[in-house]
């Protein structure tokens, strides 16, 4: 007996329309898998991240410990050679990667939280609140951030990793705030936002449930840029001797190599690995960001 087409319970589930959210996700995933910039950038970043997380567990000594002969080039025993004091450069590189990602996540995260909060409130509220927040943003934006960081960190007795990240975040948020504000200003006039406002929902609820989800791709890319910027700023501070006291980072490796004349002594294995490490990580983050932009922006997608 043939079932009647369209009868309750007899419809083919395969013919039912796919939910909009799932369709968008599958479409984004489809283009993400086929974007070489995204895959290359993400692959390099994840490789360095895993090395920084897992690598230290396979090193049986402190990175600043004098463990071998001095000024030894790379070998089977010391993969990246040793310093003029007999320190293992491979151990310093692996531990330095961990510090690099920590400072990027923390410094970039602080800047992201402050910037997005200021941008959302200013863009949604408008009026006098927007003017005040925009004025504060412009004041911080015109301050010479590196000079402020140098003065602030130089006079701190404790120069830890998180203190450095905090100051980087406090001076890096303005451009993110201005970018988020411009997007929020546009979205705040949409019909669904007006409807949520008329229904009596609170400001933070409207921002987090109506405005922010429609900017999710933009927010992800903003965080990646802040992440890479925090790494570069931290490397610059480390190189001029304002890094974490007693710590290990790629920037501090460059500072030590410069201080003890590694270039003049032709000890290329001392300064090339940390320099290439910083360049590869930050460069891959920007390549990853370009790839994400091509995936999220339909006009830039390659079929």
**Judging by the overall fold, what is the CATH architecture?**
Orthogonal Bundle
Overall geometry? globular
Share of helix among residues? 55-70%
CATH class (first level) name: Mainly Alpha
How many strands?
0
Q: N- to C-terminal separation? A: 46 Å
Low-confidence stretches: 1-17
Number of domains: 1
What is the makeup of the main sheet?
none
The DSSP helix count reads 12
CATH superfamily: MetI-like
Chain-averaged pLDDT: 85
Structural class: mainly alpha
**CATH topology (fold) name:** MetI-like fold
Secondary-structure element pattern, one letter each: HHHHHHHHHHHH
Provide the β-strand percentage band.
under 5%
Taking all Cα atoms into account, the compactness measure Rg is 25 Å
Describe the protein.
This protein has about 300 residues and is mostly helical. It has a single domain (about 85-300), classed as MetI-like fold (Orthogonal Bundle). Helix content is about 65%, strand content about 0%. The chain has helices at about 20-35, 35-55, 90-125, 125-140, 145-155, 160-170, 175-185, 190-200, 205-210, 215-240, 250-260, 270-295. It is globular. The chain starts with 19 loop residues before the first helix and ends in a 7-residue tail after the last helix. The model is unreliable at about 1-15 (pLDDT under 50). Belongs to the binding-protein-dependent transport system permease family. This is Peptide/nickel transport system permease protein. One of its GO terms (molecular function) is dipeptide transmembrane transporter activity.
């Amino acid at each position: 007996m043939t079932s009647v087409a369209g009868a309750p319970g007899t419809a083919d589930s395969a013919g039912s329309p796919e939910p909009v959210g799932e369709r968008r996700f599958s479409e984004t995933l489809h283009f993400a898998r086929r974007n070489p910039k995204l895959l290359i950038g993400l692959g390099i970043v994840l490789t360095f991240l895993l090395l920084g997380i897992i690598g230290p567990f396979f090193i049986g000594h402190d990175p600043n410990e004098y463990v071998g002969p001095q000024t030894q080039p790379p070998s089977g025993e010391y993969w990246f050679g040793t310093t003029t004091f007999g320190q293992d450069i491979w151990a310093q590189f692996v531990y330095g990667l961990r510090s690099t990602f920590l400072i990027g996540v923390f410094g970039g995260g602080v800047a992201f939280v402050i910037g997005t909060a200021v941008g959302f409130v200013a863009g949604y509220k408008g009026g006098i609140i927007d003017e005040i927040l925009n004025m504060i943003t412009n004041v911080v934006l015109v301050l010479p951030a590196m000079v402020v960081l140098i003065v602030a960190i130089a006079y701190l007795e404790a120069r830890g990793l998180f203190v450095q990240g905090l100051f980087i975040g406090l001076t890096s948020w303005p451009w993110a705030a201005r970018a988020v504000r411009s997007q929020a200003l546009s979205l705040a006039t949409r019909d669904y936002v007006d409807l949520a406002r008329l229904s009596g929902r609170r400001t933070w609820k409207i921002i987090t449930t109506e405005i922010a989800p429609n900017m999710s791709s933009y927010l992800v890319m903003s965080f990646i840029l802040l992440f890479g910027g925090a790494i570069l700023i931290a490397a610059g501070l480390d190189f001029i001797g304002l890094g974490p006291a007693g710590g290990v980072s790629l920037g501090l490796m460059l500072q030590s190599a410069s201080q003890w004349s590694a270039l003049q002594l032709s000890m290329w294995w001392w300064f090339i690995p940390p320099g290439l490490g910083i360049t590869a990580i930050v460069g891959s983050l920007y390549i990853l960001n370009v790839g994400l932009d091509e995936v999220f922006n339909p006009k830039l997608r390659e079929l």
